[in-house]
Amino acid sequence: MHAAPWFGPRMNFVKRAGLSCAARKSRTAGLLGIFVVIGTLLLGGFHLRATAAAQEAHTGRTIGVDVTLLADGLTPETAGAIAASAVVTRHTLELPVRADPVDVTPRTVDAPTPEPPAPDGEDAPADDAREDTREDGPLVVTGVPETDLLLPFSHGSARITAGRALNTKDTDRRVAMVEQRLAAENGLGVGDTLRLRGADGSPVPLEVVGIFRDPAPEPAGWAPPHELPGNTLYVPVSTAVSLGADEKGTDRAVFRIGSPEDAALLHEETERLLGAGTFETRVNDKAFRDQVRPVQRVGSIAGLVVNGVVVAGALVLGLVVMAQMRERRHEAGVLLAMGEKRWKLLAQHLVEVAAVALPAVLLATSAGSVAIGVAGDALPGPPPDAVGPGPGAGPESGADPGPGGVGAATVARAAGVGLGISLVSTVVPGLGLLRLHPRSLLTDTD
Amino acid sequence: MTSASAPLLQLSGISHTYTGGRRRTTVLRGIDHTFERGTFTAVVGPSGSGKTTLLGLASGLERPTAGAVRFRGRDIGELGLGRYRSKHAATIFQQYNLLTYLTAAQNVTCAMEITGSRPETGNRRARALHLLETLGLDRETATRNVLQLSGGQQQRVAIARALACDVDLLFADEPTGNLDEATAEGITEALRRLAHDQGTCVVAVTHSPRLAAAADRVLTLRRGRLTEQAAAR
């Protein structure tokens, strides 16, 4: 018994497709070229769109829109509840307190002549004296959930010179960020501990986790210590409370949201928690508009490019394949006259197109890297950590290696679109052609 | 179901009209005829008399505008024109109609694959090469692209392709038209043997008196009507 040849009856259209492609080299090469061009444009467009989306998400997270909430008696708990909203990425508030040092020497400038001591018997009781000291303590301590969102730090006027910023992980920790001049005066470095007097009079030890530089100069003349920019510390909110800060001592909080469109949602959430008419919000989206909108425009243009290429590619491929099918009417007539099934004829054409499209995708992937490099340069400089997966970076960013490379998802998408175009452009004219009787196909030259 | 007692091929009241714009041209008018297995029939007539159209209708390449073509008693439209062409009827075209991206041998094996024809040896390529060789095309010629062959060689490839398919009906449109006398004689003899030795019903449209003379029956088509004349021998 003879083994069935590899091109058995059920596979003859595949074999014919292969022989046809091999025999019609110039036609195959032309079709390959068209596919490569369309595939490259598709890959470039998809990649640009994915990169723009990732960068938009990243920029949105980084820049964001700051919504300032003004409400009487705002507490850290209330602000935290509002910050739990899905649209809020970060939040902060400032809970100020004046604190007394225990083992730290506050900075002073040209101390004024001391006033005469109070007459005997007029000294205040010890407890009262401590209370006065606390209220009028020389150190300005600010309780914050995190320091990055504070205006001086987010706009870059203040900067960290050693260690790190305070963040939400420090919520229940006894840590502090100390102004550079105060740290220098007391020989404090990151990892050292300083002690302030707590609300109950006991010392509160604080580990220095960061040292920052406030650009404000010391006043030229005399000023009380608490007015010196050097006498500033930042601590977590809970620490500020333990130092005597009034939990209802603030009337404003700042919430960072991803886009201006989210402001309405935040307003609804705040209204639900605080009640209508009890608060006011101010939206500052200037930075967002300045930095995110250009990226959005690039993304929109990339989307238009992709759609344009899909339409133009479909038209070009459709016309090319249609023209090829028309010039192969006679061949179709011959095969039908021999009794070939219509679906096999169509399948032969599809196999021929796919046999060209798949290598074209590989070529386009190489060519696309060049186009992507050029397209990537068109985007406003992405931050280094914008490349690669990240929350909110969009579904494509996880599969894309970022500018300079082509992700598998992008290649698969471009290949899918390319094959879809070729499928439609083969099947639609093919169905019209194959409705005809073989004799019509064999005798009609048009 | 086809019937064993029914004629192999029956043309029943066949008329055919071509429509081009407002112009309608009736080519065949009320053709009635039956063809039996093992017979070799020649159809003659002047050019434009409808011979090729008759062949096209009988071979299932198109459907008549009136009447019926029945294979073993069953309308070929019901049987399925594609199935009829692949399983029961093969055609040798006047214009050869070869697949130009294939070699001579591949054209023959391609037809065998489509029709499901499998030689006793099981080797289609060997069968194709053998058939081509009996028609005067050696192996070297058989493995060349058909566009590199002469008209006469292409005609023999077309004939081999039809002979390779194990069918009940073989239709041939001017099968010896481009062949030299000796080769034409060989083709004529091959068709006659196919009918008489293998039981195939062969119907050939021709202008060749020699081919007509070799046929069992000669039908004349004139102004769309078919008449039978006595065979030359």
TrEMBL record, chain B:
Pfam families reported for this sequence: ABC_tran
Highest taxon listed in the record's lineage: Bacteria
UniProt domain ABC transporter: residue ranges: 9-233
Key words of the record: ATP-binding, Nucleotide-binding, Transport
Nucleotide-binding in keyword set: yes
Matches recorded under InterPro entries: AAA+_ATPase (IPR003593), ABC_transporter-like_ATP-bd (IPR003439), ABC_transporter-like_CS (IPR017871), ABC_transpr_LolD-like (IPR015854), MacB-like_ATP-bd (IPR017911), P-loop_NTPase (IPR027417)
Molecular functions per Gene Ontology: ATP binding
Family: Belongs to the ABC transporter superfamily.
Protein name (Swiss-Prot/TrEMBL): ABC transporter ATP-binding protein
The species this protein was found in: Streptomyces bohaiensis
